[in-house]
Amino acid sequence: MVTVPAVSIEEGLSLADAAAYVFVDLRDSNEQAKTGLIPGAVASSRGMMEFHLDPESPLHKPAFNQDKTYIFYCASGGYSAFAAKIAMDMGLCPVMNLTDGMNAWIKAGGPVARSEQDKLL
């Protein structure tokens, strides 16, 4: 069984501005509105992720067509690990999971985008 590589909060913080990485926020819009997103993150709620990943879907997000490493995150790291595995199974690679998620990111003082202009949709 293939496992999804984990990225610690410390590693994630060091990759936040790296052009080779795209963060994917799997939380719903209410959670995102409360805490913000990692700057530059693609917002793709867990319930919509498969549609956003599928190039044949009318809801496909072109951000998933890039030659990048995708780092998935949720509030605490649990369901993002599962979602990252599904993304791998759908052919997106490479993918990683941000352990401990957005809650730990904020606690560690990570940058947060709070407005539509600050994030990639």
UniProtKB/TrEMBL annotation:
Keywords noted in UniProt: Transferase
Entry-linked Pfam families: Rhodanese
Tree of life domain: Bacteria
Annotated Rhodanese domain residues: 17-114
InterPro entries: Rhodanese-like_dom, Rhodanese-like_dom_sf
Gene Ontology MF terms: thiosulfate-cyanide sulfurtransferase activity
UniProt feature coiled coil, ranges: none
The keyword Repeat is annotated on this UniProt entry: no
SMART domains according to UniProt: RHOD
PANTHER family on file: THIOSULFATE SULFURTRANSFERASE PSPE (PTHR44086:SF13), THIOSULFATE SULFURTRANSFERASE RDL2, MITOCHONDRIAL-RELATED (PTHR44086)
Protein name, as recorded: Sulfurtransferase
